[in-house]
Every structure is written in structure tokens, then in C-alpha cells.
Amino acid sequence: MSVRFELGRRRGSGPVHAVTDAGVRLYPGQVLALVGESGCGKSVLASALLGLLPSNAWTRGRAWLHPGTDEEVELLSSSERVLARRVRGRRIGLVPQSAATHLTPVRTARDQLAETFRELRGRVDPGSVDELAGRVGLAPADLAHYPHELSGGMAQRVAVASALVAEPSVVIADEPTTGLDRPLVDRVTDLLGELADRNRGVLLITHDLAAAKRVATHVAVMYASRVVESGPAEEVFHRPWHPYTKGLLEAMPEAGFQPVPGHPPALTELAELEREWGCVFCLRCPDTPGVAPCNGDPALVEYGSRSVAAHPPC
Ligand SMILES: Nc1ncnc2c1ncn2[C@@H]1O[C@H](COP(=O)(O)OP(=O)(O)OP(=O)(O)O)[C@@H](O)[C@H]1O
Ligand code: NI
Fold first, then answer.
1. Is the torsion defined by CA of 255, 175, 71, 164 positive or negative?
2. Any idea where the domains of the chain sit in the sequence?
3. In the predicted structure, residue 31 carries a pLDDT above the cut 90
């Protein structure tokens, strides 16, 4: 799929290329970590799947939910009515970024969960709120609290519980661990892993590579609106092919914090950059665009279970 934002003529620039020809697959039982620097298009990709893009956005391409089954839905062309009644919260649960701010301040955690039950399931069965809370590690007593009385980790658990009310087969978590300290990051991350163990598909959007390494079964690396590498997490993390993936891994604390030099290109100038050089990463790449090992082709190409753009395995 691709997503563009029109900025309007008065701004004097072309559209923002927020997502370009991005292709990912997510199967039940997988945690797919979508990683990449701030602004590369991760959240926009998720918003597009859920029909939550602002009005200045347009999309191209296809995004299939449950393809080849009776429940198949093409998300990008679905009406707001279909997305609201059949998809959001029901088949795809969303754990939003900074969950605490999404909770209603004047309601206890229990009331919020009960309300979500009524909305998505029509009623609240006795015990169902406690049962669900228990699954994410919240005790009944925790649910008596108002949002301001909850720690960041607890609020995050309430958000995960809310996302699970309708037993969605897919859960999208956008930066679910922002602002939490490391032990809590690990607990929330593990919780997402447990959802996949229960045969859900989890899309974990994060720039925390350590969290991705901990729980992801698969990884897709985004750079300047494109997926530049994807595949089984173990393989990609162990033997990255794309120089950007290598750069991200070298920027991790245990690798000595060697951030990728330079900055991502402006998303309004990507088309030009690609026309001129082929690869979107060229300005920061140690390889010369179009000269081996870089083949200068920005398209993601499959090699067995893995895919990579411009830098085929050698
Ligand atoms: N409504 C909009 N109009 C114009 N540009 C937008 C709009 N929404 C997002 N963008 C741009 O799209 C690009 C991708 O944004 P996105 O939020 O997906 O980044 P991200 O990878 O999720 O980053 P972060 O890790 O900071 O959340 C950014 O450059 C952003 O400025
Ligand atoms: Ni984001």
C-alpha cells in the first residue's frame, strides 16, 4: 500500500510520501515488529489499515484482512461503516500510543472496560471484566482506580485489555511501551507475545529495537516510507542484509550506540530522490547507489522467507 498526504498548493511542495509500496504479511501466532526511525511512516501505515487517516490523505493498493476466507475484507476500500461496525475494535484491536491519555479521566478502569464490553459485545457478563483483566495481569482491586491513580504500566494493561474485549484476531500496538521504564517495557512486551501465543496476529510498531528483539517472530524495517527489509526476526537481527538494518542494530546500546550518520530525506522529495538514485537510503548508505552490492532498485524483493530492497544477499 501507499499513503500520500496533500499539503495544499499554498505550502508550495509536493505531497508527503508517508508510505510507499509497503508490503507486509502477518499470520496468526506471529508478532510482526514494524521498526524504523521516527517519521518513517509506521503509524500512518497502521492508521491506513484502520481507516483512521485524516481527510488530506489518499491511499493506493490493497490490505487484506483474513484473505481467502468467508471473512475477507479489503481494508483500504472499505467504507467507514464497515470499518466501524466490523473491523475496528472487533477484528483488529488497537493499543494506542500513550494509552493513559486515551482513558476517560472521570471513570474507573472497571467502568471503562465495562463500557467497551457494552459497546462491542452488547452486554457485560458478570465476571467477564475481571476475567479479561486477569489475563493482562490486573487484579480486581486494580480496576477500582481512576486513570490518574494508575501507573504507566497499569494504564497500558488497561489499554491492552480494552483492545481484547471483542477477541480480535489481530492486535495493532503503536509504541505501546513509550514512557515506561525497562522492567515495565518487558512486561508489556511479553504480554503482546502472549497474545500471539494465543494465535493472534500482533503488529508491534516500535522504535525500541530491544523490545522488538525480545518478542518479535518477524520484523519489517521501514525507512523513508518504504519497507526496506523484512523476514523472520531471528534471521534479520542475526544477519541483516540492508545497510539501514545494520545501522539500526549498531545503534543499539549493546552494540555501542553508533547511530546511522545523517538524517532521513524529506518525505516530500522522495520521488525525486528515487528517480535520481534508485535507492531511498542512498544519501546515508555506505554503498554507492547502483554499484554492487547496491542494485539501486527501491522495490522490496523476496529471497526465500526474507525480503530486501536494493541490497540483495551476496
Ligand atoms: N496529516 C498529515 N499531513 C501531512 N503529513 C503527515 C500527516 N500525518 C503524518 N504525516 C507525516 O507522515 C510521516 C510519517 O508519520 P508517522 O506518524 O507514520 O511516523 P512514525 O514512523 O510512526 O514515527 P514515530 O516513531 O515518531 O511515531 C511523517 O513525516 C509525518 O510528518
Ligand atoms: Ni508513530
1. positive
2. 2-237, 253-308
3. yes
